[in-house]
Amino acid sequence: MLFALSGMDEITGGSVKFGDTELSNLCENALADIRRTKMGFVFQQPTMLKNLNILDNIILSAGYDGKKDIAKLTQKAKALMKKTGIAGLESRDTTEVSGGQLQRAGICRALMNAPEILFADEPTGALNSKSAEEIMGLLMDINKEGTAILLVTHDVKVAAKADRVLFTKDGNIIFELPLQRFSGRDIEARVEKVLNGMAAMGF
Length: 203
Description:
Layout: H1 2-5, E1 17-18, E2 21-22, H2 28-38, E3 39-43, H3 54-63, H4 70-83, H5 99-111, E4 117-121, H6 129-144, E5 148-152, H7 156-159, E6 164-169, E7 172-178, H8 187-200
Helix pairs in contact: 3-4, 3-5, 5-6
Keywords: ATP-binding, Nucleotide-binding
Organism: Anaerocolumna cellulosilytica
GO molecular function: ATP binding; ATP hydrolysis activity
């Protein structure tokens, strides 16, 4: 679904709009430009180049065309690393950091071009409970700062922290559960509400 919404996969029906732009009408170059400048992607397993250190992996997607000031990109990447709690890991190899740290690096990379929306596909799925909680806290902070986030998850506790929960089956949205903005204090009640919604839909 995230691939269809971001224009990576060609849709066979309906439409996908990004603002006022119908993505299905765009050529691949125009789609790639939108994905590069206005969308960010965070995956369950961050894909990093093993021959590059953490800092270079973060900078890579933002500066690949060679037209940007590398010094400014480096400064921005280091600021994001500090913000996400991985300052000091710039020169580390990707094999020298934990899964949670690697996911934070993936989030930094996704934010390098200041996207309007962040697509997150099971971002906590491969993490232990502590790291998962930290990553969700980080994503929620990013959302509060104005970046929209569309997150796919099978974790009820993760879903309960969203403003809206959409239940899908066979590629179709079958139920929508609106929630108020998470305050950090009502997680148990929110989890119960999500579970009740799932039960009502036969999940």
